[in-house]
Structure formats: C-alpha cells, structure tokens
C-alpha cells in the first residue's frame, strides 16, 4: 500500500533522505502506547520513535529524585493492553515504572523502533509533497537528559559540538507528538537576584544530582508540590542533611495516600499471586479504582452540590493535616482556596516528615541569594506575623528547585510549521492559547496529531487512561492514511475554533477558574489548556 514502507529516497547522494510512514516524537508512556497499538491494531511496524533523552520512559526516566513514585495505584497506572501482574507494591517507585515501560517495549518488539539521544529541531509541512519534513539533531550521549537551560549553558561554555553531533532531515507522512508535560523544568525565579554569587550547588529536583553529598549540609528547597512532598522527608532521614528549609508560596490540599485492600504488607505479599492466579481479579480492581476516581468529578463543578461536596472533603483534609503536623504549621497549611483548584498532593511521608526538627517550613518568600545563604522576607499578611517583621537570613549549602515544570508551553521546544509557513505556537497565540480539536488535531497542520495534547488531562484520574483514549482516537484518524485511501487528514478551522471556545467556556465554571487560586493548569492570562 502507498507509503507503507520505510525507505531511502534519492539514492544515497547529498539530497537523499529517509522516509517514514509514521514519525513519533517522544518515548514516554504516550509514545510507547502509540507504537504498540500501531502494531497491534493496524499491523503497522513502519514507524520510528525519536526521543532526546538517553533512555525509554519519558518523565519517569528523567525524574529520579529520592522517593519518586506514582501517586496513582499501579494497577490503574498501567496500560489496559499490557497489565503488569507483578507490581511489587501499591504505589511503585519511578525505577519500577521505567522497568515496566521498558518491558512493554520488549513485549511488543518496538525497542528497535526507538531512536534515543535525538532532538527534533523543526517539523515543517511540505504542501507540494503532502509530507512532513523533520529536522533531527543527534546529541552527544546523555546530553538530552539535561534541561534546555543546562544544554544552552553547555553550548555557551564548551561549544555546539559538545551537544550536537550531526543533523539529518527525514520525511514522514504522519507526524505524531507524544511530548509530555512533566519533563522540562522551570528555571531560577527571575525576580530573585544573587544566583551567580552563590558558592554552593543549585539544581532542580527533575534533574537530581546524586553526585552531590547532602550529609551535614544546610539545604533550601523552593516549592511544596508533589515532587517536594516525596523527596523532602528523605533529605534528613536517608541523606543526613543538617537542616532543610522548605519555602512554600501557598499550601496545597494534601490527601492521605490510599491504602490497598488488606493493607500494604498483605498486598505486597499476596497481590502478585492473586493477579496471576485469580481470573478477573486485576481487571475488577482496576474497574473499581477507575469508578472511584471518576466519583471525584463531583469536586470540580460550580453547582451547590459540588460546593457542598468540596466543603465536606476540605473538612476531612484539614482534620488530617492538624492531626499530622506540628501545631505551629496549622495556620500556614490551611489553604484559602477550594480543594481541586490546584493539583492535590497524595501524601504518605511529607506531613509526618514535618515533625522532624531539622525540617522547617515557611511561607516567607525568597528575596535574594548570597554566597552561602538565602534571604527570605515577609509573606502574605497573617495574624501571627507582625507587619514590621524583618527579613531572615538562612544558611544554605545547597538550593533545590522544586518549582514545577513548563506545563503550559505545549510542545515546547518543538517548532511545528504547518500550511502557509505558520508556526503552531504563533497560531495559538493569535487564538488565545494552546488548543487542538479534541486535544488531537489542529487545522492548518495536516496529518499531525498529538497524544495527551491540550485539555486532555483530568484533575482526578490516571494520565495513562487519558493517553490511551487519545491513542485510540488517533488510530482511527491515521488508518485511512496508512491504507492509502486519503492523502491527508485535517480538522476544519470552524470545528477546532468551536471546540476550543466550548472548552474554555465550560472551564470558566469549574473549580480551576472559580476556586480562588492560580495553578500550573493555567497561563498568566487565565487560559486553561491542561484539564477539561
């Protein structure tokens, strides 16, 4: 059939290129699912998956901080088409998830379809040929694991050849982006001076530095999100930090981590046997968990029922907080916004860890950095903090950023140029923010599809479920292309615009816009491109 084979075009002269029926960007959960399902559902093995990182696994490959683990039960955080009966625990660690994902690639025999240490610089639609021209840059092994900022610093200090080895242009009939959101970390806060004077080490939790010894060190952590909740208690307990000062901008709603049926010890002993020997056990439990997660949808609306449900949950969570942390933290750990407005933290260790006298939590914001300390100033007005309170100097040997990821910069740093030479980021800016029809397709960008694109995440369920939904829809769209029945698939502009308008209109009535907070779900202008 037309376009069914990977092949070399124009011989092997200077103008030659490799043609791929399908090019996939990203070897994380979505890219792996896309590759496996192409083989299983459509019988297509003529694809290539490109990833700049040095290993398979996406966000789970790159996030290696102490205590990294899934906060969704593993049985619900795995592919429906490839369940794992042998999870060692209810909430597996990052390394175990990576091992699972690598095992899926081996099971479906797509390992040889994955090209690592390869950066995608630009994807350009060639109207005359009805294909995508993709510019690849081969990276020095391991450099792709660095953040964009660190790669730029390396180029500035060591030259381009320290990062980029070769450049190649390929062409593809179908281009599928499986670029994740929790990969590219935020950089140093621009409004905080003194970073260049600091004599200690500064790094982001998403690029953990295990070569740095934390023992007997004074550590400052900026942020109180999901990552920080997992690693902060370990800094003193497992790594011997002398002190940890954790800076919190606003308190999160913290939900006690769910325990498995029978308790954790019983589960770890018997679940693998039950999954392997009791027919239907894992499927039934997965269904129950999915149903329970969907019940949380009640927390996100704006009707009286939703408000009352949130109030009941908030009361339980505040009771849990006050029973878990020292009294001195009760006030600053009481959120002034509705539960669900921000990403909830599902925690088993952070609250107990705050009882460690070596860990200090504060809402005083970071104002400056010197050679061996940081200065924190007055936070929002509180009854317990006098207006005349002065700034405080905190000793610091190491500063760890846990300030999140560049989530709202969709497809960043990919350059996607569609019909008429328009970059997709420029189109989004013109239309108010990142958007795609059903989170998958964009007018003006034929044969281009995204897995886990704008407005496809939820605030309450497994991202694996959302990813598989997008994969299944994309399979329907690419099937006629692979069969040679059509030259291109493209959504109509009016359909895409109407979809985005309806989504943003509906979100204005949801807790993410009405709950009294600002979160990484939204841009500074208030455009919510993350959830639906």
TrEMBL record:
<keyword id="KW-0503">Monooxygenase</keyword>
<dbReference type="GO" id="GO:0004499">
    <property type="term" value="F:N,N-dimethylaniline monooxygenase activity"/>
</dbReference>
<dbReference type="Pfam" id="PF13450">
    <property type="entry name" value="NAD_binding_8"/>
</dbReference>
<dbReference type="GO" id="GO:0050661">
    <property type="term" value="F:NADP binding"/>
</dbReference>
<dbReference type="InterPro" id="IPR036188">
    <property type="entry name" value="FAD/NAD-bd_sf"/>
</dbReference>
<dbReference type="Pfam" id="PF00743">
    <property type="entry name" value="FMO-like"/>
</dbReference>
<keyword id="KW-0560">Oxidoreductase</keyword>
<protein>
    <submittedName>
        <fullName>Baeyer-Villiger monooxygenase</fullName>
    </submittedName>
</protein>
<dbReference type="GO" id="GO:0050660">
    <property type="term" value="F:flavin adenine dinucleotide binding"/>
</dbReference>
<comment type="similarity">
    <text>Belongs to the FAD-binding monooxygenase family.</text>
</comment>
<dbReference type="InterPro" id="IPR020946">
    <property type="entry name" value="Flavin_mOase-like"/>
</dbReference>
<keyword id="KW-0274">FAD</keyword>
<dbReference type="InterPro" id="IPR051209">
    <property type="entry name" value="FAD-bind_Monooxygenase_sf"/>
</dbReference>
<keyword id="KW-0285">Flavoprotein</keyword>
